[in-house]
Amino acid sequence: MRIYHNQLANQLQKQLLAVWLVFGDEPWQKNDALDNIKLSAKDQGYDELIRFSNDDKFDWNQVYNEFQSLSLFAEKRIIEIDLVNNKLDDRAVKTLSDIGDFIDGQGQSDVLLILHGPKLDASTSKKKWFKSLDKIGCYIPLYDLEGKSLSIWLNNQCRQLKLNMDSQAQQLLSDFFIGNTPALAQELQKLTLLFDQQFIRSEDLEQLLIKQSKFSPFQLTDALLAGQLEQCNNMLTQMKHEGVVLAQLVWIVHKEILQIEMMLTRIKNGENRDALFKELRIWDKKKPLYNHALNNVTLANIKRAKMRLAKTDLISKTSSDFDDFILLSDVCLTLYYGDVTQNLSLDYEYFA
Question: What domain of life is recorded for the organism (predicted)?
Answer without folding.
Answer: Bacteria
